[in-house]
Design a protein that fits this description.
This protein has helices at residues 9-19, 54-68, 92-102, 150-160, 194-209, 228-238, 271-281, 319-331, and strands at residues 2-4, 22-32, 35-44, 126-132, 137-145, 163-173, 176-185, 216-223, 241-251, 254-263, 286-289, 298-302. Strand 2 (22-32) and strand 3 form a beta hairpin. Helix 4 packs antiparallel against helix 5. The protein has two domains: 2-104 and 213-288, ACT domain (Alpha-Beta Plaits); 126-210, 2-Layer Sandwich (Alpha-Beta Plaits), CATH 3.30.70. The longest helix has 16 residues, at 194-209. The strands form two sheets. It has a seven-stranded antiparallel β-sheet with strand order 1-3-2-9-10-8-11, with helices on both faces. A five-stranded antiparallel β-sheet has the order 4-5-7-6-12, with helices on one face. It is α+β, with helices and mostly antiparallel strands. Binds amino acids. It comes from Theobroma cacao (Cacao). One of its GO terms (molecular function) is amino acid binding. Residues 288-310 are annotated as: Disordered.
Amino acid sequence: MTGRDRPGLMSEISAALYELGCHVTATVAWTHNARMACIIHVEDGFKGGPIMAPKRVAEVQEKLENVVEAPHDSGERRSVRLTAPAAGRTHTERRLHQLMYADRDYEQCQGCDGSCRHWKGCTKTHVTIESCREKGYSVVHARSRDRTKLLFDTVCALTDMQYVVFHAAVSSKGAMADQEYFVRRQDGCSLVTEDERHRLTECLIAAIERRVSRGLRLDVCTQNKRGLLSDLTRVFRENGLSITRAEIGTHGERAIGSFYVTDASGHDVNPRTVELVRQEIGGSALVVNKSPDRTSRASSSSINRSSSSEVEERPRFSLGNLLWSQLERLSGNFGLIKS
């Protein structure tokens, strides 16, 4: 599903599924730039297994479309699609990137506004595109905060926009990461028009920033039951909490996952509100995660060439260290996805 984000939307969706007799087995949801995308795995709550009857599928889809539709704005774009399980299913997080790209969450995306004269010391996202005419490449350079899966998100965006990467260099230092890609379009041409460069810039900024966690992280581990997601999100909504990101699934008889929440205005959550939510859900089922984000200190690596610089320290979770171990596996999965 995709549509305009609003406070309480996930609660409304999960309540609708519960009323329709659907059992939610897994959910992943992202929000970015006032847009929402989510993938929910459901089973027939009465018979078990996937919902296959055409009449029942149509009923579920119609109900969800009515929920996702923004109030007082029938012209707002939205999408609800029900699909049966299939072999070779697309990676869930890559599919979320594709959904948000199709929903144009990249529109009006801006990194650094250009007011800083030097990138050093600026923690905003920078994307620049230059031409390498002697080789026929366009050179894309992105600088942003380093984080887990940054490389994956960037390459997904380039691939889904049908750009081919011929060479790349990636490095991280402190909390920041630099990525440089030499790309061409699939037809072999470099980026020609200013509109094309602007669109790619917006899309890369969106791909880099849409996974960034906003808000307080609440970890859930409790006995699985029908209607659990509806109950959890109802408590969040009734206490004025808005979900910015969610991921929850079942492991045997247990439901395990995480929610990132803010208040309805997008600000930090009042600790007293969190305590009220914990008491209502159950202190042992809901835990406030206060772990700091991992940041790397110094690393570098390159594709198609070796780096001549020596690295004194290589943090375990740096983007540079992940490059070699992930690139070969990722490249085998980057075939074009046809609707």
